[in-house]
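Item description
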Amino acid sequence: MRIVYHPEVKNISLVGVLYALGDPVRLEIVKLLAVKEELCCRDFDFDVAKSTMSHHFKILRESGVIYTRREGTQLINSLRREDLDKIFPGLLDVVLAISVRPFCPGLRS
């Protein structure tokens, strides 16, 4: 069974986290995990190919945004909220709060 890579806290970068959060599908994954705390991969019902979802989980995991653990044959995902809040205080809360609003180019709030 393959080992799932997770960066050490000291190797999590702002650029990597923002890149991971910059994709709409990955942002939706993070939003769901923020509410549900833990979900296995099959609990995410997006209209994308399984290989594409695997890629999104890999980006989130390798950037340090999520933690994935094996439980039998399933992969259980959770946010690395404590680690992210320690390195970038308030970042995740701001991203989640802003992502609730609809995107309107040119609109000033």
